[in-house]
Amino acid sequence: MVSRRGATSLGCLMSLLIFVAALYYGVNIGELFFRYYRLLDEMQSQAQLAPSLDDGTIRRRIQAAAQDIGLPAEAQQVRIVRRASPREIVIETEYSESVDLPFFNHTFNFHPKATQPL
User: Fold this and answer.
1) % helix / strand / coil in the chain, to the nearest 5?
2) Buried (b) or exposed (e) across 43-81, using 16+ Cβ within 10 A?
3) pLDDT digits (tens, 9 = 90+) for 28-80
4) Is the backbone peptide bond immediately before 86 cis, with ω within 30 degrees of 0?
5) What is the total count of domains within the chain?
């Protein structure tokens, strides 16, 4: 009879190693998307309040939020357009963030945009 105890331990160790690696990569990449959605949520909130706010106030609030979230300075370059037909406000910006992980280096380009009828 052949003992298979070592093979089972090695299989368990490999499964654990793959799980930890996926978790490590997922947390680091997921953090970028979490910050993106926080900025997008702030932009949508400001777009809903747009009928009672001027563009300068909206811009300052979004810039402060981007800074608090820890986004790059280019994310603070907010464009605000109020259209007459159809009556709406469009708030947008764009920025890039890089992830440098072992065996994985990538730059993600984000373009958050909020549109709300006025």
Assistant:
1) 55, 25, 15
2) bbbbbeebeeeeeeebbebbbebbeeeebeeebbebebe
3) 889 999 999 999 999 999 999 999 999 999 999 999 999 999 999 999 999 99
4) yes
5) 1
The tokens of 64 are what? 């402060």
Q: What is the domain range of residue 94?
A: 5-117
DSSP string for 8-44: HHHHHHHHHHHHHHHHHHHHHHHHHHHHHHHHHHHHH
> What are the angstrom distances between the C-alpha of 115 and each of 2, 49, 58, 88, 99?
67, 12, 13, 7, 29
pLDDT of residue 100: 87
Angle at 22 between CA 21 and CA 28, to 5 degrees: 90
Q: Which amino acid is at 73?
A: A
Q: Identify residue 41 by its one-letter amino acid code.
A: D
